[in-house]
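Sequence only, no structure available. Ideas?
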Amino acid sequence: MSADITTRADMAVPVTNPPPKAGSATTARRRRIRPAALLTPLGSLAAAVGIWYAVTYLLLSPARRFLVPPPDQVLTVSFLDWTHLQPMLQALWLTAQVALVGLLIASALGVTVAVLMSRARWLERSLYPYAVILQTVPILAIVPLIGLWFGFGFTSRVVVCVLIALFPMIANTLFGIQSVDRTHHDLFTLQRASRWSRLRKLELPAALPSIFTGLRTSSGLSVIGAIVGDMFFKQGEPGIGTLLDVYRSRLQSEDLFAAIILASLFGVAVFALFTLIARLAVGSWHASADRP
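Reply:
I predicted one. Tokens follow.
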């Protein structure tokens, strides 16, 4: 009798599987969408190449086709010919150095200014308007002044990068520091933490996602600034921006398109690199790490 009751009790108890872990669900979701994540860029690339061919052969007459050469002609004339490709790679390396130095200076200066503004409200009211002015003043309007003050070589190119890439670092870092949860501040207040300890252990770590968002934005802007600087400050070794201006003046359309593609790929690579660094630095504690 007792065995029968036990058997019925066992049958009445529903058998449930343990709920899947959040991490495993996220991993499975990423694995499911990985083929789509690879096919989507390839599809957009194929569409862009198709539009390029259509513009060349359908919209332009044969007499004007040199303005937009087809992709295969750009590939054979510029990318597969070392005499054309070598100066582009050398110029791109110089532009990369300018962009990297400018980005490092803009990042260090931007984080420092944002930290100072977060320490005192009067500093924020005093310095933030000038940061906005740096973002809104056209660089072309102050290029002559930069050339007179810093010369027309490497230094002026770096200055242009810093001016263009500085504001996103200031704005995003300040936003991240000021967005720390008030309850976390209360906990540090209860522990009688110093302002330096609060900054080092709470505010800067909590602001890391915003800082890296600004860094990704500034990395792309620094590449743009390096190319713009190459076009206007031509003393010394030529950068990729200098070659773009030369190819335009000589109507070397294949080389012009090849240089544009190289500069664009470099900008994408820089953005992807800092995106990877942001994910490694922030880790899995931030909500952005759960996105596929």
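The first helix runs from residue 2 to 12.
Hope that gets you unstuck.
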